[in-house]
Amino acid sequence: MKPKISVLTTVYNGEKFIEETIKSVLNQSFKDFEYIIVDDGSTDNTREIIRKYEIKDKRGVYHSGDVNKGYYNFHHSINYGLDLCKGEYIARIDSDDLMDKDRLQKQFNYLEKHKDIFMIGTSANVIDEKGNILDIIKKRNYPSLFYKYRICKNSFIHSSIMFRNEGLKYPWHNEHFFYFNMIVNKKKIKNIVDILVDYRINPFGVMSKHANLKGNKYEDLYKK
Predict the structure, then answer these.
(1) CATH dotted code for 5-211
(2) Which secondary structure element, helix H or strand E, spans residue 134, and what is its range?
(3) Residues 77 and 3 sit within 8 Å (Cβ to Cβ)
(4) What is the rounded distance in angstroms from the CA atom of residue 49 to the CA atom of residue 43?
(5) What 3-state DSSP class applies to 64?
(6) Are 119 and 180 in contact (CB under 8 A)?
(7) E-strand stretches of 46-185
(8) Would you say 66 and 57 are in contact if contact means Cβ atoms under 8 Å apart?
């Protein structure tokens, strides 16, 4: 029997935070989900940590690549994971972020009630390495049309999105092109105001190594 939701995480050398992420997913109040983790050729202890939970909890499905594809090809790992997802909905969570225990339930309820909406994101706490709350990113419940013109302005927190499993893929490593793909395909997308994820400022992660952080209010924390 297919699960209602597929949760998808992609990871590369995420040993520092992946265990916290996994725990936040497996402790959800909503239980009808599968958890797919795609490891993009990690060389640290990421694999061992994931396999420990795969044995403990049968909702976890782990897939490992032998060679890291690199930052600019990372979308291939995401799309590989999307192909594995069997759920009616797909929820993304990055390998250093955390879910509120009611996240899946609240987003599932919203999408079940609003059949015209393809994807929703949420607000988020901003946390540091130790999980201390530094800030809150508050998203507004704007009409879907708003995002057609704001798609490259960090309109969505990637770790907060849930969307209908209809085969859409990431055309590039930057998630903004995924949202644009939805707009092109005439999908309605929006945020809800609830704070349902903890977004971590990770000085060891992909953002700190590859993203253009000029003007980012958390730049100093990423470069710690």
Answers:
(1) 3.90.550.10
(2) strand 133-137
(3) no
(4) 12
(5) strand
(6) no
(7) 60-64, 89-92, 98-99, 117-127, 133-137, 162-164
(8) no
The answer to whether 29 and 101 are in contact (CB under 8 A) is: yes
CA-angle at 120, arms to 9 and 59, nearest 5°: 35
Tokens standing for residue 132: 């201390």
Determine phi and psi for 150, rounding to 5 degrees: -120, 20
CB 37 within 8 A of CB 94: no
Cβ–Cβ < 8 Å for 80, 38: yes
Q: Which of 171, 158, 161 is nearest to 200 (CA)?
A: 158
Half-sphere CA count of 50, side-chain side, radius 13 A: 25
Tens digits of residue pLDDT in 157-171: 999 999 999 999 998
Averages of pLDDT over runs of 10 residues in the chain (224 residues) are 95 95 97 95 93 84 73 83 96 97 98 97 95 94 61 80 96 85 91 96 62 55 57
What is the DSSP code (8-state) at residue 151? Answer: T
Count of positions (residues) in the chain: 224
CB 71 within 8 A of CB 210: yes
Alpha carbon of residue 181 to chain centroid: 17
Neighbouring CB atoms inside 10 A of 144's CB total 16
User: Between β-strands 133-137 and 117-127, what pairing exists: parallel, antiparallel or unpaired?
Assistant: antiparallel
Phi-psi region of 114 (alpha: psi -120 to 50; beta: other; left: phi over 0): beta
Q: Which two tokens stand for residue 78?
A: 């995401």
